[in-house]
Structures are given as C-alpha cells and as structure tokens.
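Subject: two folds for Thursday's group meeting

Dear M.,

Sorry for the delay on this. The cluster queue was jammed most of the week, so I only got both jobs back this morning. I'm pasting them in the order they finished. Each block is the input sequence followed by the predicted structure tokens. Could you check whether the formatting survives your parser before we put anything on slides? The first protein is the one we discussed after the seminar.
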Amino acid sequence: MQRAEDALEAALTRRIFQPNMAVTLLREYGKAGNLSRMLYWVQRLSASGRKLTPGIWNAAIDAAHKAGDADTADALWRDAAAAGGMGLYKEMRRINRGAGWRMASDQPARSRDAASTVLDLSSCSGAVALAALRAEARELRLGPPSAFRYVFMGTRPPSRDAIVAELNEGMRTLGLHMSAVRGAAYFYRIVVPASQPSG
C-alpha cells in the first residue's frame, strides 16, 4: 500500500487531491486491520486543511469497526460530527394535514431538536449506524426521562437486511427501546426505558 500512500501524498502536495483516493486507501487499511495507518491518514487529511467527506469518515469508522475497536469508531464519529462531516440528521416535515411525517432527505437539520429532526440510518454502513446509536444512547441517558430520538431505517431492500438485523441487535445491546412512529413509514422512536440507570 506504500504506492497508494505515495500517490495520495503527492496529490495533496500538488493540490489535485480527490476524496475517492483517500476512501480507497482507508478501506484497504480497514481490510488489513491496520488502524494506526488509517488514523494517520485521517489526521494527515485533516491537517492538510481538507474537509473530510462523508465517504472518508464512513471508510474510517468502518475500518475501526472491522478491527473490533468500538472506542476508536466512536471517537471518529464524534470527530465527524464536530466537523459537520456526516450529515445524518435531517429535518422532519408534517404531511397529510399534520397526520404524518416525512424526512427532508436533501435538507440537513439546522438543529438537533428531537421533535423536528431524524437520524437517517437508511444508507450508511452498519458501522456508522452503530456508532451513531451508541452516541444517541449516551445522550439519551444523560437527558431527562422524556428524552427520545427519531430514527429513519429506510425501506429495507434485501441488501440492507443484514445491516438492519445488526442495528436491531445493537439497539437491544445498548438498552434502547424502539417503537414505530404512527403516520411515518420506516420511522422509529428510540428511548431508554425509565428503569435503566443513567451513566
């Protein structure tokens, strides 16, 4: 992979960098289980002044997940969120004269207000979705008993079945309770049951 690293470094130096070059390299390091080189390149790209794209963050979080390092995946999720790099929170809008909801898929949320935003897990990888759910579980436990988050799971094509199963298991492991949202297909409301301790 040295040749790919050299090519990426040259592209950064010559200002001809394309994000797909970084995504490919990070995915290769994920397959090889080489987290140290993956993290080096995330830091190198950030230090170069480039805005890391969702694809780059996704590849980095996937690499950590494949290595079984949830702490690193969560740290990358926090870094991505702080940099505004994932865009998974979307605005929700009322439809059918207020009887239902739809997600504004092309409209990133202007805030994280639980009543009007939804966490869109319909197209991201299982690794990114699990990192997002772990972050939400932490926030919900720190919030008031009434705290909740809307989640959009998508239309579940067969190619997503394994990811949806992984997310459902992840939510059970995290102690999250999920219920369907009336009038909003594939929307769910997640909460931490009141009997669970915070922290």
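Second protein, same layout:
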Amino acid sequence: MYPAHNFDTGAQPPTFGPHFNPTQQQPYLPLQDPLIQGADPTSPEVFRQSIANVQEQVIQLQSCARRVLSGIQNAYQAGNCPAHTKADISTLKQILELTIDIMRSSGVGALPVLPGPTSPGGIPPVPTEQQLTERTQQSLKRFFDQVLRHQESAATAANLLSAENIGKVGK
C-alpha cells in the first residue's frame, strides 16, 4: 500500500491574474463582446469573432494543460509545490468548462478547431479536400495496422495457450 500524503498546506492557491476569476464566471454569450454588440447574431462577422474567441480559449487551455502536465511529471522533484499543481488542475477544469460553454453557445462547437493564423492579420491555413482525404486515408491505415497487430498478437497468444494445453494433456 502507498503511504498517504496530505499535500494540502491550507495556503491559498496562486492566482492567475485578472483575466480569469472563477468566482465571477458567467455563461458566455457571444453578443456580450463589445465588438459585436448590436450585430446580427447570424452574421459572418459574429461567427468569425466566435471562432477567434474559441481559438483564444483553446490556446489558454493548451497552456494550462502544459502546466498541469509539467507539474504532474515533476511531482517528486525538489522544489515542486503540489498546491500549485492542484490549483493548475482546478484552473484547467474551469477553463475547459468555459471553453465548452463558448463552443456550445456560439455554434462553433461542431466545427474542427484549426490552428490560428501564422502571422498577425493572416488567414489560417484551411486544408484542401485532397489533404483531408490523405489524412483520413493515413489515419485509417494506421488504425487498420493497429487492429491487424492486435489480431496477430491474439492469435499468437491463443496458439501458445493451446500448445501448452496439448502438452499438458499428452503427459
């Protein structure tokens, strides 16, 4: 059995700046954005702004997830504070909930999240149909190869077990 550790020091978790306050979190409504107030909720401008908001949230989510992963990987290193990792995990959960809320309320949630523009003011790269077809074919080939390896492994294990049983019966 593993020893029980209580890492909770009773100290307040670190704050992550004024941009994220979980106690004052409200549901995201795309029309609350000052840039698109008074705009038609079905307009392309509102949709573009919603996509940009989701991309920003995904970047924050990735950053927080990296902090959590680093905290977990270095959990037993000297100088690592479990309270910080605990706070990062809590923040990650909250950012994830906010991102889900933004994606649901804006209508962007059904779309794939593409990487943002490579340069300021640039247009994000949109894959062509041929690129999507190639990606899908590569993905299916990897999946097929994986299933084939599993089947071969299962067949080998079954052969070994049946050979063992035949050897025991013959003795």
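Two things I noticed about the second structure. Residues 129 and 135 are 10 Å apart (CA to CA). Residues 22-106 form one domain.

Cheers,
T.
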